[in-house]
Amino acid sequence: MYRYDEFDQQAVDERVAQFRGQVGRRLKGELTEDQFKPLRLMNGLYLQLHAYMLRVAIPYGTLSPRQMHMLAHIARKYDKGYGHFTTRQNIQYNWPRLVDTPDILADLATVEMHGIQTSGNCIRNVTSDPFAGVAAGEVEDPRPWCEIIRQWSTFHPEFSYLPRKFKIAVTGSEHDRAAIKLHDIGIRVVRNAEGETGFEFWVGGGMGRTPIIAKKIKDFVPKADLLDYATACLRVYNELGRRDNIYKARIKILVHEMGLEKYSALVDAEFARSRGTVKLPDAEIARIQAYFAPPAYEALPATSTGFEAHKFEDKGFRAFVRTNVHAHKVPGYAIVSVSLKAPGIAPGDASADQMDAVADIAERYSLDELRVTHEQNLVLPNVKLDDLYTVWQQLSAAGLASANIGLISDIICCPGLDYCDLANARSISIADELQQRFADLERQYAIGNLKIKMSGCINACGHHHVGHIGILGVDKHGKEFYQLQLGGSGAEDASIGQVTGTGFPPERIVGAVETVIGTYLSLRHGDAETFLDCYRRVGLAPFKAALYEAR
Amino acid sequence: MKLVKNASLIADGRKASVVENDWTLVDDDAELPEGKAVVVSLARFRAERDKLVGRNAPLGLRLKSNEAPASVADDLDRIALVALEFPIFRDGRGYSHAVQLRQRFGFDGEVRAVGDVLWDQIPHMIRCGIDSFEVGDDFPLAAFDEAATVFTRHYQPDTTGRPTINELRHG
Ligand code: HEM
Ligand code: SF4
Q: Would you tell me which CATH number, out of the four given (3.40.190, 3.30.450, 3.40.50, 3.30.70), belongs to the domain B2-170?
């Protein structure tokens, strides 16, 4: 993992001091709320329905047990004992007091964390593959590049008042677990014929009210040009992106309206002029990569008899392994997903005790590392097969062993009307009902891989556009309604879901999902055909018929 | 309104100071004052370019946030001051325009921020090459003191020429 040097620490400490001054001026009335807003947003502080909300960055989703303990401490000391892991590798606290926020940020700074640029019209927290560095078949660990981007984008003088927020995601794998095609800039680490590392650049993806899949703008940007090319992309956007209408201000609209070719030509011209300005010395790349060198793995056999025996004897453990344990690139190790989708708990929520528990487990059994995913779960990236059973038992004791990763009850869901002042409808309660309706594990297995994603309004914080089944809360004459979308995907085969038709009232939306599932089960070509594959084969029509014609 | 100059703020650690504004902003339909340094809009500059550059007094140009300096690139060596308008602090085009003036066109005249100039935006403005600020009479000069000290180091190269963190790391 990356560790701050004196410069990184100084920057974060100075930011805390600056924010303390800003909060002080706000409390004294020297700053209006309108003037304070962009400043607090750039430190992750939102004003929500009931209170302030603080968003803390977990850059590219990697954190140490020590950092997780601090997140628990903050939940306990300044909040109501829990936090919410979001779809952007951040954690949100729902109840901090404004006067406490400088202290919270100061506490975070002691473990090299912050809320910098987790909101506002700036370059946001860079996100990545939660399996980075441990997935088999990866070109290269993307996190050193994420850290390089994190530093370059921090307090960027030119790009802090962009037309709109700007999100960058980086992956090093063919299989996209970072949804790069739904980001303002998506980057895939690639290798060219000469064996050199470089970057495939995608631009103009995003969700919100106009979901658009990113377009490929460059096949190969050499390492040394990474930041100059990104600068050129941003400079053109900062100058030409629309500022007349907040809903048309994202780069996706600029690229869409102008056309990729024209945008790309402007970027190339700017790049040609400014290339070499942002120096990225090889020594700096090497310095950062050294922090991400693989940990000291033991030489282990590829199988473990203890592990096999436990799987044979214990049904619960077997179920956990089936969904939550994934192949690791090193023999004898596994990647363990920790589901934050237990029944009755808002997706992505974890209590302070759970954070402490998972931090302890990571310290003892996962080589001191944890990850958070954009699907609102946690990951223990380095668990020995021999330790899996113990880890499972300890997770179970902490209420963290839900065996449902990738299944229908592993729902992504935004806070919705329970917290958010932009919401049209509740989302947490619908997620809860869905989990209850599909609680039976055998039934979940029968349905197979299925991603339900739900947002309480068109802003799409819950990624509903790219859910295999997407649910969107809308307001119809002052009443909550839910629209269904089918066939979306946020992975390498990215697609935007199609709306089925008229929405459903709260008491019928879960039934509608059940109808969709029933239709899929009756249409699929054998058990191996996933919902998404089946949908892509048969299209919307049979689902539409089942949903609306029977009425 | 007062004018705060800041040119040497980074270079020798001096604090910003309030200075006399030697420039007259001339409306598009007003007479040009004889022998005085004037600032005109881009529209007027376009309409009366030859007359303006032929005057025997310094010439300044005021650009709206949607008017890129590239549109006057060929005339920048005849211009002594570019005033960049920030109609609202959220409109960040002026930052890119200031960077372009300094880096792309090598403009070494005065770059002035006018409009919605606020305390917390000043550090970024300085780093993008803006060296004077038109602010309200009650605008606290403490903002400029803070701008000089708030961040000791920075990651990105900027127009101040101070070494970046990477340069400090690797000599
Ligand atoms: C109360 C808190 C929140 C507010 C006010 C809020 C506001 C917004 C708004 C206005 C947008 C649309 C931006 C645009 O299209 O330009 C948006 C998008 C988004 N937000 Fe939130 N959000 C909140 C909480 C969350 C949470 C909890 C998550 C994660 C679970 C999240 C993740 C996202 C994502 C992934 C997008 C889509 C990005 C895209 O359009 O490409 N937000 N949010
Ligand atoms: S999708 Fe809408 S309701 Fe949900 S968190 Fe985002 S802004 Fe709020």
A: 3.40.50
